[in-house]
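Module 6 notes. Inverse folding takes a fixed backbone as the condition and produces residue identities as the prediction. Think of it as a translation problem where the source language is geometry and the target language is the twenty amino acids. Below is one complete input and output pair. Work through it position by position during the lab.
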């Protein structure tokens, strides 16, 4: 595999910022389909793909979320063109006979629910990270959020499916004049070991 051009690395990492304000510009539904079609290609443990995604695009759907948001997140979240709920399916293992037919993995999880829950949480979080990078690759800005009531989101949006919310990602196009300088990051020697 060849390295990406420097311009792509800059778009994905160096120039990307968490938006402070959004342009009044719609995110086309076809772009959300394209986004998911990239996210689904990323690896997960045993191809388990527990991530499930709900795109709140209509004002009614976003307003329904209001009561579940932490106070400091309401304005930025509800002004975003799209709010994606990154969730996990606790019964993801029911799809494994189709997703990983070479081995009998379903029973690993069906017979050990704590292991299944841990796997679903880890891998849906991983899929959320892929989601951020895929969105940036498609030219979208992303504002990740964990300040919300998961139980309330689950009851508002996933009662029928039984999914569990993990994190929220606001999507759209940032107002460029609202971008701040990046906050400090730990240096390699502060965060890494070479063993």
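Target side of the pair, the amino acids:
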């Amino acid at each position: 595999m060849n390295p990406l051009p420097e311009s792509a690395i800059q778009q994905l990492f160096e120039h990307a910022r968490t938006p402070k304000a959004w342009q009044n510009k719609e995110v086309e539904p076809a772009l959300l389909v394209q986004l998911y079609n990239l996210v689904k290609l990323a690896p997960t443990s045993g191809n388990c793909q527990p991530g499930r995604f709900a795109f709140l695009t209509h004002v009614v759907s976003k307003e329904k979320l209001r009561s579940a948001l932490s106070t400091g997140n309401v304005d930025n979240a509800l002004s975003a063109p799209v709010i994606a709920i990154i969730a996990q399916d606790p019964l993801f293992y029911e799809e494994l006979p189709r997703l990983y037919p070479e081995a009998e993995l379903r029973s690993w999880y069906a017979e050990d629910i704590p292991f299944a829950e841990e796997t679903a949480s880890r891998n849906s979080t991983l899929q959320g990270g892929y989601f951020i990078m895929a969105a940036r690759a498609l030219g979208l800005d992303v504002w990740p959020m964990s300040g919300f009531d998961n139980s309330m989101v689950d009851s508002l949006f996933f009662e029928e499916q039984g999914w569990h919310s993990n994190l929220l990602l606001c999507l759209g196009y940032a107002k460029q004049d609202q971008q701040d300088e990046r906050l400090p990051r730990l240096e390699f020697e502060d965060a890494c070991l070479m063993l």
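Reference fact for the lab report: The beta strands are 51-56, 82-88, 141-145, 164-172.
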